Amino acid sequence: MKTCLQAESRTKINRSGLRKLRQSGQVPAIVFGKNTEAEMIHISSIAFKKWMRDKGSGFIQLQFGEERSLPVLLEDYQHDPVTNDIIHVDFQRVQDKEIIRTKIPVKYMGTPAATKNGGVVQVQSTFIEVESLPKFLPDMVELEISNLGIGETLSVKDVAFALEITVVSLPDEALISVVKP
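Request: output the structure for the sequence above.
Response:
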C-alpha cells in the first residue's frame, strides 16, 4: 500500500530561502537513484510528519501535479535537535526491475510474560536491512514477543522472509531480549 505525497520541483536556493520554505510549511528534499540525476523537491511538512507517525516505512508515491508521479523509499531525514522539526528529507527512487537495499522496520507485538517476574525488555534494533526487488519488500515485520522468558533473545536469524529477499543484517544481530533487572 503506497502513500501519496504532493511534491514540487525546486531550484537550488540559499540558506535564507530554505528557512522561508520551512516557515511556509514545506520541507526541502532530494530524490536520487541509480543512473538518474538527483532532483531537488519540497513536500508538505504536515503530510510527511503524519506519514512518519502513522506508517514511517514503505513506498511513497510523490505526485508532481497532474503530470507525473514517482515511486520512492525514505532513505534518511534530518531534524532540528532542539525543536524536532524535520529540516531535510532524502528519498531513493524505486525502479521495478532493480534490486534495492533498504531497512524494514520491526514491530514488536505483545508483552513478554517474563516482565511480570521482574524481567526487563531491551530493544537492540528496530529494523532489519534487506535487499530485494521492490515488489517483494514488506512494509514491516511483526514479531510476537509474548513468549520470551528471562535471558531469551530474538535475533535476525529468527525472522522468516520470503525466498526472494536477501537479508543483509548479520544473522546473530540481536533485535530484542528480556534480561534480569
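The mean pLDDT is 88.
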